[in-house]
Amino acid sequence: AQSVTQLDSQVPVFEEAPVELRCNYSSSVSVYLFWYVQYPNQGLQLLLKYLSGSTLVKGINGFEAEFNKSQTSFHLRKPSVHISDTAEYFCAVSEKTSYDKVIFGPGTSLSVIP
Amino acid sequence: DAGVTQSPTHLIKTRGQQVTLRCSPKSGHDTVSWYQQALGQGPQFIFQYYEEEERQRGNFPDRFSGHQFPNYSSELNVNALLLGDSALYLCASSLKRFTDTQYFGPGTRLTVL
């Protein structure tokens, strides 16, 4: 069965500093990978997704992620964070053989400090 | 273009009661998925509807059921509510192939007392 691990439950970072949010997954088959952001009292918004092709994926708001198949990782990065990036970030995976079902990680709370 | 809408925004029920949550997908989308998000956790997949049929289901008991209407809108029904059913219920819509982007609604906050 597929699963998603987000190693850091909380990540505090100063404004304009770089940040990396870690995500590892487990699956016996090929997968699609996603990062979502959730602002307080709102639904989820897709930041970026990896379906195939280039392992470096660029998303909205200056975020990017790199798919590493050998390490089964899909870490999210941003070179310079802003106060407005404070939110909950979720990594998610779906198996290519069953793309209807998505498994989310427990989330990482990013707090940007002025 | 309206995005995904859900109603009601908040709901308070007591144990044993039944509840119905509603979702209208983004214009042009024909697939609706439902998720349960407990406080401090990631969303958990409940089920997905396409062409008015349940296409996939997560690890949720039969107390959780759904329906999709010809206009693609959907309902989530939960019977015999338990305290543990208290959560944010999210609806997401997409086109037939899930690999298309899922658009999430703002959710319905259900509190069971």
Show the helix and strand layout.
The complex is a heterodimer of chains A (114) and B (113).
Chain A: E1 3-5, E2 10-14, E3 19-21, E4 24-26, E5 31-38, E6 44-50, E7 56-58, E8 64-68, E9 73-78, E10 87-95, E11 103-104, E12 108-113
Parallel strand pairs in A: 2-12
Antiparallel strand pairs in A: 1-4, 3-9, 5-6, 5-10, 7-8, 8-9, 10-11, 10-12
Chain B: E1 5-7, E2 10-13, E3 19-24, E4 31-37, E5 44-50, E6 53-57, E7 64-68, E8 74-78, E9 87-94, E10 103-104, E11 108-112
Parallel strand pairs in B: 2-11
Antiparallel strand pairs in B: 1-3, 3-8, 4-5, 4-9, 5-6, 7-8, 9-10, 9-11
Description:
The complex is a heterodimer of chains A (114) and B (113). Chain A is mostly beta strands. Helix content of chain A is 0%, strand content 53%. In chain A, the strands form 3 sheets. In chain A, strands 2, 5, 6, 10, 11 and 12 form a 6-stranded mixed beta sheet that branches. In chain A, strands 3-9-8-7 form a 4-stranded antiparallel beta sheet, with no helix packed on it. Chain A has a two-stranded antiparallel ribbon with strand order 1-4. The radius of gyration of chain A is 14 Å and the shape is globular. In chain B, the strands form 2 sheets. In chain B, strands 2, 4, 5, 6, 9, 10 and 11 form a 7-stranded mixed beta sheet that branches. In chain B, a hairpin with a 5-residue loop joins strand 7 (64-68) and strand 8 (74-78). Chain B is mostly beta strands and 113 residues long. The mean pLDDT of chain B is 92. Chain B starts with a strand and ends with a strand. Helix content of chain B is 0%, strand content 50%.
